[in-house]
């Protein structure tokens, strides 16, 4: 089996899982965007997926984003940045990404806004919400990034007021070893509260290869799939 065959099969399967979860939840598959997380995989895979109709691609490291995105400038894909972001890397990410899913502090909002304004590239920002409270351990230190739910409104307000940034909604990663369904229920209520104050901020980026059904049931608009599409990643040191 060639790599293209493999990606074709995986993509078909992933689209079927999304469609099934949508049907079960009484939603239309058109409401859910598949974002292919291509971290650690080569540019050829991005090209192949784009050729198969994937429109959204994501990376979690600035270095990889800046290596791949310019080489893929001929492709009609939207680039997403989903990893933790140092403020000093904000400019480079804004150069190449259309959406940043991992906005988690006011200083990053300032850095992103300055970069977006300087470069004349508006950036859609999602507030990353910590769901550590739904995990098995003590909340402190077990999180997988993001702000605590009660800090979302203030950070969202900062994004909404920042020049060059568009407040898009929320993003989260389910806690390891926790109940993804409960965690995504919590995220759904954070998202509903955000929408009541900012009606346009209606994206919910939730669900990865292991928990996409749980996320779609609870309103995810963007699922971020790595392994389900591309296969097992090499372990990084
Ligand atoms: C790697 C990654 C994903 C994809 O995870 P899989 O389990 O491979 O589907 C999604 N979101 C973020 C933030 C990631 O870093």
Fold and architecture overview:
The structure is a single chain. This protein is of the alpha/beta class and 237 residues long. It has one domain: Alpha-Beta Barrel (TIM Barrel). It is 41% helix and 16% strand. It is built from 9 helices and 8 strands. It has helices at residues 3-25, 43-51, 62-68, 90-96, 106-119, 152-161, 180-197, 212-217, 227-230; strands at residues 33-37, 56-59, 78-81, 99-103, 123-128, 165-171, 203-205, 222-225. The protein has an 8-stranded parallel β-sheet. Strand 2 (56-59), helix 3 (62-68) and strand 3 form a beta-alpha-beta unit. Pyridoxal-5'-phosphate is lined by residues 37, 39, 60, 82-83, 173, 208-210, 224-228. It comes from Kribbella deserti.
State the gist of this model:
The chain has 237 residues and is α/β, with parallel strands linked by helices. It has one domain: TIM Barrel. It contains nine helices and eight strands.
Cα Rg:
17 Å
CATH topology (level 3) name: TIM Barrel
How many helices? The count is 9
Q: Name the poorly predicted regions.
A: none
Work out the number of β strands.
8
Write out the CATH superfamily name: Alanine racemase
Write down the overall mean pLDDT.
Answer: 95
The strand order across the widest sheet is 7-6-5-4-3-2-1-8
Largest sheet: 8 strands, parallel
CATH class: Alpha Beta
CATH architecture: Alpha-Beta Barrel
The string of secondary-structure elements, in order, is HEHEHEHEHEHEHEHEH
Structural class assignment: alpha/beta
Modified residues (N6-(pyridoxal phosphate)lysine): 39
Keywords: Pyridoxal phosphate
Pfam families: Ala_racemase_N
Domain Alanine racemase N-terminal: 31-234
